Amino acid sequence: MLSRALRPHFLRSCLASRIRYFSTTPSAYLDLPPPPPPTGFARLTNRALIYIRGQDAPHYLQGLTTANINTATASSQSGFYSSFLNAQGRVLHDVFIYPTSHSPNFGEKYDDPGFLIDVDKAHAEALRGHLKRFKLRAKIVLRVIEPEEWDVWGTWGGDDTTNYDSSGFESGAIGCLDTRAPGMGQRIIMHDGQKPAELPGKETSTETYDVRRMLYGVPQGHSEIISREALPQESNIDYMGGIDFRKGCYVGQELTIRTHHTGVVRKRILPVQVYRTEDEKPPDTLQYDPKTSLELPGAAQNIARVNTRGRSAG
Questions:
Q1: Rounded to whole angstroms, how far apart are CA atoms 125 and 118?
Q2: For the whole model, what pTM was predicted?
Q3: Where are the beta strands (DSSP E) in 207-288?
């Protein structure tokens, strides 16, 4: 069942005007990003980083995140996907977490374990406040990384076998495979404005990266995974590898594990393809064309299967 359609940032204003951005006039679609190339990379300017360091950092994060910090870092220094929940089991933040002790930019400076948390930029301070709320006597240090210090990059279409455990990888870069969907590529954290070296394809914008991500059906950030409302299973965080159902207690675990064992998830985020009724047949795959002329239905319109009666699906 459709929970929420994944709405690109460039569709939000179009939901109000309805046809403004879906016109074939050049002035209407010049602001839309081009289709994503088969191979490319992009600096993700809508993401921010929080650094947490201290001897209690692994144990501290273990009690707050849906991923298993101990298992994820026991055999690898690669990053991983996860999320933070509130006490009611609702999603607060979807994140990537990267161990930093193997990097010369961190490991040579500090003996204590450390992590970078990759989060929605607009809500980085909110996550820092959430982390400080549970700090109590834990021996950790928290700070939001300045944008010019480290950058988050998304890459795709290249070699997905890069070893991020090596401290010498690309001058201390930190990263991981993006496991949220097959073929999503990699995420790389670069220092001092560096770009990922020797990558195939061309550099694109954050907006083009988001188009590709949506075509893969991957929600991200507060505009798509509604904070304090969305459940992790509704947001496909379980399908995207962000939940360990065998780990110990963490904030929000009770509802999450009960939903998992009952097996009842009544709605999920799904990508949708909107097309004209006069088209000969529906498209076989999700497609993106910034020049498409299409009038969207209003927000109050009913959602139902074609040629059927009954209760609305939305």
A1: 12
A2: 0.83
A3: 268-270
Output the six-digit token pair for 12.
């939000």
Which is nearest to 69 in space by CA: 78, 58, 79? 58
User: Could you identify the residue written with the tokens 């139902």?
Assistant: 304
Please name the amino acid found at residue 106.
Answer: F
Do the Cβ atoms of 93 and 119 come closer than 8 Å?
A: yes
Instruction: Report helix, strand or coil for 308.
Output: coil
Q: If you write DSSP's letter for every residue of 146-214 in order, what string do you get?
A: PTTTEEEEEEESS-TT--TT-TTGGGT-EEEE-TTSTT--EEEEEETT---TT-SSEEE-HHHHHHHHH
The alpha carbon torsion through 274, 280, 282, 288 (nearest 10 deg) reads -50
H/E stretch holding 107 reads helix 104-107
- pLDDT 10s digits, 166-195: 343 444 568 999 999 999 999 999 887 888
- Label the pairing between strands 202-204 and 40-43: parallel
Which stretches of the chain drop beneath a pLDDT of 50? Answer: 1-29, 165-171, 314
Distances (CA, A) of 256 to 51, 62, 309: 27, 16, 34
Provide DSSP, 126-155.
HHHHHHHHTTTT---EEEEPPTTTEEEEEE
